[in-house]
Structure formats: C-alpha cells, structure tokens
Amino acid sequence: MSDTNDDRRRRVLQGIGALLGGSSLAGVGAGSAAAGADDGGPEDETEESDGEGFCFRDDGLVTVESGEDVPGTVGCIERAIEEAGLLHVATIDHAENAASIGEELRPTTLLIFGNPEVGTPLMQEDQSIGIDLPQKLLVWEGPDGDVNVTYNDPEYLAARHGIDQDERIGMIGEALAGLAGSGRSDE
C-alpha cells in the first residue's frame, strides 16, 4: 500500500521533531514508508529486515531504497533538514570530487547535519561519540541503478561509545528513518 505525500511528510516531520529534542512537528507516531533495499555491499555480510523495508547490516548501517534519483533524493532530504530547522553542515558530492581527479564514481552524495541540543548531551556522556557526530546520510546509486540512503544506526553508535541514553537514541533513530524515507516516491 502506498503512502500519500502528506502521510510521508507527516512521518518525516515527526521523526525530525524527535531529532530536535522531542518536539512534535506533525502529530503523533513515526513510521517508515521505505521499501527493502539491497545496498550493494559485500554478499557475505549479514542483513536483516525490520519488516518495514529497512535493512540492517551487522556493521551498524541502515539502508533504505529511494524511489527517486540521487539529485531528487538529496533535494528532498535537504528540504526536510531545512524545514526542521536542523543545522545543515555540508553536502559533499563524492562523484564530483572523483571527476575532479579524472576518475568515475556512480552518484554518491553525503549530507552532514545535526542539532547541538541533541548531540551535546551524548558527547557529555562520552566525547568519543563526537567522531560520529554530526549525523550523516549517504545517498548513492548502486550498480543496479537503484538509489539508496544509508546512515549509521544510532543504537550501534550508542553501544560503540557506551552511551546510555535509550530515549534520546530512539528519538534520533526515528528522525534519521524519517529523513532517509523523505526521498521515497509513491509506488
């Protein structure tokens, strides 16, 4: 069953509200409209689906398939970041950088963004998590032409750095899932 654009926007804003520190931007509840994805990673890595289309690899990455091309997905995510009032730190076009040295790379764009009100308490608990902050979303085209959005699973990062803030980590996870799903088109 397809989501409407309004349903998807509401879920994205709910997730982003969580990233902003728990404020609700669009009602209650957050979910995912994402469909399953093969992220093109090594075939011997363990992957499992959460039943809602997100693939979790044992290396702490979550990948969601987008229904748009890379520029369209990046544009949707950038607008969602801006609308939420998050700090958009940078957008890095890895394919453009590869072209600058005469090399080819399928479209690959990294978005870096965050919220100091959410990240600072994590770093106060263990500064080493600063290596993984601010948050990042990688939008990339796989060898099959499918476009994916990959991000670090916040629970994996919390475990990696010994962070014990389950509620905050859960809110960050919902926000990232909402942002990653914001580039999806109706099927």
Please, could you describe this protein's structure?
37% of the residues lie in helices and 21% in strands. A seven-stranded antiparallel sheet has the order 1-2-3-7-6-5-4. It is globular, with a radius of gyration of 16 Å. The N and C termini lie close together (8 Å). About 14% of the residues have low confidence.
Topology summary:
Blueprint: H1 5-19, E1 47-49, E2 55-57, E3 61-66, H2 70-83, E4 87-93, H3 94-99, E5 108-114, H4 116-125, E6 135-141, E7 147-152, H5 154-161, H6 166-181
Antiparallel strand pairs: 1-2, 2-3, 3-7, 4-5, 5-6, 6-7
Helix pairs in contact: 1-6
Number of helices: 6
Distance between the termini: 8 Å
Q: What is the radius of gyration computed over CA atoms, rounded to a whole number of angstroms?
A: 16 Å
Q: What's the CATH C level?
A: Alpha Beta
Total count of strands: 7
The assigned structural class equals alpha+beta
Overall pLDDT confidence: 79
Sheet of most strands: 7 strands, antiparallel
The CATH superfamily turns out to be: TT1751-like domain
Strand order of the largest sheet: 1-2-3-7-6-5-4
State the order of secondary-structure elements, H for helix, E for strand: HEEEHEHEHEEHH
Helix content: 25-40%
Could you tell me the CATH topology label.
TATA-Binding Protein
Which band does the percent of strand residues land in? Answer: 15-25%
Q: What is the overall silhouette?
A: globular
What's the domain count? 1
Query: If classified by CATH, what would the architecture be?
Result: 2-Layer Sandwich
Low-confidence stretches: 22-47
